[in-house]
């Protein structure tokens, strides 16, 4: 990886919301086809810079740091601009992806036009139009109906736009346009999928970091106690599943996940593997194998505590059928694991470990993260029961 020369700065990149963000509260932004970016948190940067080799296949690739600033147009609409090479530390400019400047779409603070939403989804999901012609973005699309239920069918996932609008509002109220903000550049782990089905799971029995205030600590403890975080060590934070029968994504957010009982969690896990026509039982074994491989790695990580981190389970909603004569085998990526499924850990802003650069004197923990292990073991058990048809 080669850094940019000061004499040859990369062109400024207009950032757009990452349309496949299904959970979290931080705005994830698309930098290019294979790269996303998010606001830099020193604790997360420290984690990526000292990542154990065994964990690298289970985390997004860290690609460096980029400077970002707000820009307001003549109508008062806000956008975020990334300026590679501008006021950067030595780690900037570490981009592997080749090619010219990405095609970008303007996303405005106050208005999200049908044309813009359509273009972004067509670029992100080639091959088929996912949107109805009457699509518009409204914040109330995240709300429940009068019966306390979320709409089952959605033609797009509004969560990323919801987070992005909140993020722009926060930035514009606190900072002027010229202020540079540091953002992490990370691998877009769903870029190879045509119709990425994503399950975002908040892992562990504890969600607050060591630096949390007493108020925040109490709030997170209550959320865990009232959800499957306490009983299973895992809860659903977001989901999108491509429905082959309708051509739309079915979406669920973190508020839905918090209300689930252990049985409701199991049923939603089953729903995540259902494409509208059938249960994708062919995906269960490769997902379980990958989770078991992750479990073996986590058990060996002494002093790490992955508080408030998430685990993504990903597969392609576009089913690739194997021919009877085996002329079209699935491509292999991780040993026996077909590339059509993936499992990745994300969000390490509250991860603590011995030797952290951002926190030289962290709370010392011995042994592996047992809350995380508890969640992984229960997740594997539930998937195993689905595989066995129970």
From TrEMBL:
<keyword id="KW-0808">Transferase</keyword>
<keyword id="KW-0418">Kinase</keyword>
<dbReference type="InterPro" id="IPR005522">
    <property type="entry name" value="IPK"/>
</dbReference>
<protein>
    <recommendedName>
        <fullName>Kinase</fullName>
        <ecNumber>2.7.-.-</ecNumber>
    </recommendedName>
</protein>
<dbReference type="GO" id="GO:0000828">
    <property type="term" value="F:inositol hexakisphosphate kinase activity"/>
</dbReference>
<comment type="similarity">
    <text>Belongs to the inositol phosphokinase (IPK) family.</text>
</comment>
<dbReference type="GO" id="GO:0005634">
    <property type="term" value="C:nucleus"/>
</dbReference>
<dbReference type="InterPro" id="IPR038286">
    <property type="entry name" value="IPK_sf"/>
</dbReference>
<dbReference type="GO" id="GO:0046854">
    <property type="term" value="P:phosphatidylinositol phosphate biosynthetic process"/>
</dbReference>
<dbReference type="Pfam" id="PF03770">
    <property type="entry name" value="IPK"/>
</dbReference>
<dbReference type="GO" id="GO:0032958">
    <property type="term" value="P:inositol phosphate biosynthetic process"/>
</dbReference>
<dbReference type="GO" id="GO:0005737">
    <property type="term" value="C:cytoplasm"/>
</dbReference>
